[in-house]
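QA checklist item 7 of 12: single-chain prediction sanity check.
[x] sequence parsed
[x] length recorded as 235
[x] structure emitted
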Amino acid sequence: MPLASAPRGPVEIPDVVRVRAPDAIAVWQNQAGGLTFRADGRYLKWNPAGTGESLAAERERLAWMAPLHPVPEVLDYVAAQDGELLVTRALPGEGAVHERWLAEPRTAVRAIGEGLRAMHEGLPVSTCPYDWGVESRMRGKDVPDLGTTPEIDLLVVCHGDACAPNTIIGADGRWVGHVDVAAVGSADRWADLAVASVSLDWNYGPGWEPEFFAAYGIAPDADHIRFYRALWNAT
């Protein structure tokens, strides 16, 4: 399955998007077939029916996170037979895989690490209504034996998809917020750290993990990283 990325060719704009943004430009396509469009300071995310993804879940989490951590403001949500649409206000920056940040990987990697640390420290795990722990992620899925689950290092509110594109970076090179939060929930921080660090290879090439872990402020833990990367691939 190809990685999520900017569309590699023309895409059909769904009617529900075209009505709200006739000049919408497709900027992202995920592995499930969902599309994200940009228009007039807004992002319009389209999720076709049957993908297994949920923009309703993202809308709920954005509402919970909004007073606590910088995330996009929800402007509209539409559920239809053929899919869902979530409209949000753009944060003041660009994703960490924007062409500028691909050309400045050290700045981007540090922003990703610092932003993830701020999220883990800033969101209150004691009142988080969402779970992203190992059992909840495996439930109802045919997951191979991954070995013994490591002891929880630190329970935090995890992003749930901490890959590089989901950190937004401002013009000054500092993180300004996070997007694509449909899987946000309480879990060991290594569930995020393992995925965020491996995604650096996908986007910037090898060799950036030490910079990331230094920016976050933690030493790599091989056992936790191995387990949570295997869990990510299996679920």
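[x] summary fact logged: The longest helix spans residues 105-122.
[ ] second reviewer sign-off
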